[in-house]
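In response to reviewer comment 3 from the previous cycle, which asked for concrete evidence that the modeling workflow produces usable outputs, we include below a single protein chain processed end to end. The sequence was submitted unchanged, and the resulting structure tokens are shown without manual editing.
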Amino acid sequence: MNVNLTVLIEQGEDGAYIATVPSLKSCYTQADTIPDVLEKIREVAMLCLDVESDVPAMNKFIGVQQMEIVHESA
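The workflow returned the following structure tokens.
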């Protein structure tokens, strides 16, 4: 079975890369480099797919936008 998954990658304050698969419960990992985090998230996703009996239909990925908001509390 082939499954297309969206993987989100962020960089934490400590410099580590954090990867998550939003459509799979508890599917996340971290590593020091992007190639390493991609390898690890593939392994974690395969384990999650083995455990989850019902994989939700995937939405079509469009994109991600980062935005800065200045929030001044009263």
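The beta strands are 8-11, 17-20, 28-31. We consider this sufficient to address the reviewer's concern, and the full set will be provided in the supplementary archive.
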